[in-house]
Amino acid sequence: MNMIEVRELVKQYDKAKEPAVKGIDFCVKEGDFFAFLGPNGAGKTTTISILTTTLSKTGGQVKIAGFDVETEAKHVREKVGIIFQRPSLDPQLSAEENIRFHACLYGMYSYHPSFRLMPAEYRKRVMELAEIVGIQDSLFKPIKKLSGGMQRKLEIIRSLIHTPSVLFLDEPTQGLDAVSRRSLWEYIDTVRKQYGTTVFLTTHYIDEAEKVDKVCIINHGKIAISGSPDEMKGNLLKQQLVLDSEDRKGLVTELSDMGLFHKTEKHIIVPYQEITAQEVIAKLKTRLSVLSIEEPSLEDAYIEYLKLGGEAA
């Protein structure tokens, strides 16, 4: 089942010369971890806003969990959790009150005027989530007394309290320290495995998308390239060996005889794709003084894509 379906989506802003989103298509399967990447101004935020029912579309069709984002917006909102890039907390309330109002708004519980009067199930879940993201000591403090990082953690709890079918993460770890970032991703991974939650991620920390099922890059309002992280890396980059020898001339001769392209920088760089690193090394007779294997990252592929001017290799 496709949890997210986007067909010929168009968004034209008033007075804009051309559409911000130009007829894009993509789907996200139930339970998948999906990354939607792109440079600033590419149409990423516009698309997310439409998917989360906060912006109307100009044309096309978008469904979340089988519900149309415009004609069945109420049902869509019941199915999704969102961590916005910009804070959306009520500063007049305490951290826990923000969570409580959110849970009651989703119809999970009847509202009670204090935390201790709320059902035990609610209190247990809030405390579990608070411990996971490290906010348990600040749970009952006013929002205005919390740091930006602590407010971010609170938004994470609030978005997960109703166990959504689709979790939209818009720069979710912005402002979090390394320990909190890791704790968040470990918890999200647990949620996905336990509840089959579909996760839709946008981030400028490209390494956070390294383990997703599918990556989709949008640029100039169009889907430019998509695939698994491995496919993206394979399409845009090659793995390479870094080699050297005291007999550099002999090594270069061997590589040339093997028909392997190479270039000499500080060391000898040998890109490879059709052959494995082990096969290359096994054929070399020259004694090596330097040997390392460099595997491209998704961030490397993304940067390479941008260097190519947004055109897929």
Automatic annotation (TrEMBL):
GO molecular function terms attached to this record: ATP binding; ATP hydrolysis activity
Keyword flag Heme: no
Keywords from the named record: ATP-binding, Hydrolase, Nucleotide-binding, Transport
Annotated SMART domains: AAA
InterPro entries tied to this protein: AAA+_ATPase, ABC_transporter-like_ATP-bd, ABC_transporter-like_CS, ABC_transporter_ATP-binding, P-loop_NTPase
SUPFAM superfamilies: P-loop containing nucleoside triphosphate hydrolases
Family matches, as PROSITE patterns: ABC_TRANSPORTER_1 (PS00211), ABC_TRANSPORTER_2 (PS50893)
Protein EC: 3.6.3.-
One Pfam family per UniProt: ABC_tran
Domain called ABC transporter: residue spans: 4-245
Enzymatic class: hydrolase
Superkingdom of origin: Bacteria
Assigned protein family: Belongs to the ABC transporter superfamily.
Protein name: Daunorubicin/doxorubicin resistance ATP-binding protein DrrA
Organismal lineage: Bacteria, Bacillati, Bacillota, Clostridia, Eubacteriales
